[in-house]
Amino acid sequence: MRRAAVVAVAAVVAMLAVPAARGAGSVTAVTVDAARPQGPINRDLVGAGWVPGAGPAIAPLQPRFVRIDASLQDVSPDRDSFRIQPLLDQVAAIRGIGGEPLVILSYMPAWLGGPNAYGRDATKVAPADPDAWQALVHRTVLALATAPARATWFEAWNEPDIPIFWQDSPTAWVDTMTRSARAVRDVQRETGVRLHFGGAATAVPDPVYLAAFLAPFRDDASLPLDFVSWHYYGNYPFLGPDGPEPLVPAPLTAAWPAVGRRNPIADPATFGGQVPLVRQWTAAYLAGSGRAMPLLVLDEWNVSAGGFDTRNDTHEGAAFDAAVLEELQAAGLDASAFFHAADSYGGHPGDFGLVTSSGQPKPAWWTFWLWQRLEPQRVVVTPSRGDGVWATASLGRRSLTLLLASFSASRPADHDVDVTLANMPWRVGRVTVRRLDPAHASASIAEPTAIDGNGHVRIHLPAQSVAFVQVDARRPPSLRPARMNDG
Q1: Environment class of residue 394 by beta-carbon count within 10 Å: exposed (0-12), middle (13-18) or buried (19+)?
Q2: For the segment 34-84, what is each residue's pLDDT rounded down to a tens digit?
Q3: Are residues 159 and 3 in contact, defined by beta-carbon separation less than 8 angstroms?
Q4: Kind of pairing, strands 65-69 and 48-49?
Q5: CA 219, 220, 226, 228 torsion-angle sign
Q6: Is 428 exposed, middle or buried (0-12, 13-18, 19+ CB in 10 A)?
Q7: What are φ and ψ of residue 277, in 5° steps?
Q8: In this structure, is the dihedral angle defined by the CA atoms of residues 31, 271, 207 and 110, taken in order, positive or negative?
Q9: Measured at the alpha carbon of residue 19, what is the angle toward residues 317 and 439, in degrees to the nearest 5?
Q10: Lower Cβ count inside 10 Å, N or C end of the chain?
Q11: How far is the CA of 322 from the CAs of 99, 201, 391, 412, in angstroms?
Q12: Can you say whether the dihedral through the CA atoms of 367, 372, 375, 379 is positive or negative?
């Protein structure tokens, strides 16, 4: 589920990129208004791409969607074989940590794609026998939907808009995907189990492939359509700056000095800008169909793709991730899944996981852990983003929480954040801060910090860092029984 060619994304980046932060160290004034609710914190933004064995390490993050390849080329290695148990076992492991398996209905069995390959990868082309493909998807979905640990969410394919994952025509992909949608529909009718289907899982927000994907659903009301998905990586249009992944094609590897570098204008705000754009495209393409707006799901994202990026291992990546979560929350995205749960390249620096291959949480893991510690009700923060600082505040019954992130790809700067707490519903007691920065690789320790008599908290936010502020209500003094008078 990684990509190695993203030339087409340059236009999207140019359209959505936001200038980097201004200047060096500065004071940023932030006001939190506890009396102005903005809706709930979206816990479904915490999700991940699955890596076998990563369950115990990511279970504390309480991920919603956990995206997993069906690997149909392995399920059906030949016409007469159906090896579903390994997939059922992995789905059960995802269910075991409370996740919702999102199963990608790919890739093509070699025996089924081979007659159409003509020198291409037989697992990345349309089936020679579309009926056989639909029957295989039907059998797979039926097994997953009726297993003790069920999977009920299915995705059409993975990144059909780049040749590393689809080497046939767009029309052939739409035909293949439509067969998959029919199979999911038929299993739902036969079993009565509520199933969900979506896509297009493009490598970038791609209006051309999205239009092609949605056309069959506009024309055929019987096909299930529950979500629209896409992917994005912050370093686009460049690939990971710290060396190519082993799956990168040789021509790209040779060109790595040109394509493997840091994008100096990479900005988390680009992610937020995509959400209304995809919503607008989807509404336009489905206009007149009578369909409700499907969920919008960004089910692959990270700092970089295609190549390693050592920022994934440090507080810098954690700060980027925190700012992206805040952008996605503000933009109203329904769900996301980070790429991915754990490192899978044997300890290679800059791998993509939230935890190392040995299960050790990285700073990015702590970013998602902090997100899940936000109180349930968002409240207004002014400003919520600006000058390389992002802020999200939320209120609970006895606590207020504030997530701060500082990130700039080219001009990182320290910030002193002056937080004003306005309209608090109770008297303030203890204030603590957890940090991810050069001195804090984990956010496990909550350090006490001061609040002045005017309701101001001053937080030093180093460049490329995260701070999580928790403001607790003052506890009333305990009542002790009066001592009886012996006289």
Answers
A1: buried
A2: 999 999 999 999 999 999 999 999 999 999 999 999 999 999 999 999 999
A3: yes
A4: parallel
A5: negative
A6: middle
A7: -65, -50
A8: negative
A9: 30
A10: C
A11: 21, 23, 9, 15
A12: positive
pLDDT tens readout for residues 79-125: 999 999 999 999 999 999 999 999 999 999 999 999 999 999 999 99
Q: 3-state class of 202 per DSSP? A: strand
> Which of 256, 277, 184, 282 is CA-nearest to residue 5?
256
Spatial separation of the C-alpha atoms in residues 110 and 122, rounded to whole Å = 5
One-letter amino acid of 73: Q
- Cα separation, 300 vs 101, whole angstroms: 14
Residues 246 and 241: their CA atoms lie apart, in Å, by 14
| Structure-token match 């003790």, residue found | 148
DSSP character for 274? Answer: H
Q: Are 116 and 128 in contact (CB under 8 A)?
A: yes
DSSP state of 389: E
pTM as predicted: 0.92
3-state secondary structure of 41: coil
Gap between the Cα atoms of 4 and 287, Å rounded = 34
Burial of 479: CB neighbours in 10 Å, binned 0-12, 13-18, 19+: exposed
Q: Who's near 28: CB < 8 A, 6+ residues apart?
A: 386, 387, 389, 415, 416, 417, 418, 461
Helices and strands of the chain, counted as H and E runs: 13, 18
